[in-house]
Amino acid sequence: MRAVGPADRNVEVVALDVTIELGAASHIGKVRRLNEDAYLARRHLALVADGMGGHACGDVASAHAVEALAAIAERDRLRPEDVQEAIGQANEAILADSREPGRGGMGTTLSGIALVDFGGSPHWLVFNIGDSRVYRIAGGAAVQLTVDHSEVAELVALGRLRAEEASSHPLRHVITRSLGTDPAPAPDVWIFPTDPDGDVFVACSDGLTNELDDARIAAIVEAARGPRDAATMLVDAAVEAGGRDNVTAVVVHTPPAAEDDLDVATTPKQPDPRAER
Asked: pTM to 2 decimals?
């Protein structure tokens, strides 16, 4: 299974009284002979899994990740612990399959966003393992919500490498956390409230971010006619810019709430998701 969700159109659903529009696209790129990316775009779940390049059966590992999360996608209400349990089950499935001959060492990244019931109200749950990313698009900018689990990200955080040097560093493809390991990796998780003025998010594999900078990602999404159009335009632009890896993008959009649906705000309107970590 390579993908679960909308492949050729915008899909609109309602979960926890929040309208969600979804769009997704994926491309093998210009160099790879196999697309090891997989994605899920269904109801209140959007995610991307990038099978680890150079490892056996990366496409199988990413498919296991998507299948585990797809198993909870049809629930009417998701809780943060539902997502975290499914991620754990994904790791177990990959480990079990890796014991088969010829499948040792398989692994995958996993990054996505879910609408969950948190404290009785709808919240966004962003989760990440590896160097796939989730962005929030607002005010003409793409704000990275996730933190890359990679050698270069750690070097940048330690002040040993400038951010602009990361894209060309020889360790840029070395990730420090992935699904398919024992002990199981701990996902980074952030929870924050939905914005009554609407939200736009992009979950993507590093095949997108290695070709397009954050400013280009934001410009493409804001120029698009909807989530599906945005996902297609992002992937097409990354392939045109080089396409040196598989490229996948899932776009999530929630329109502004109707005035009669708005409650008095009791939480900050624009929280920093990292502060909720």
From this structure: 0.87
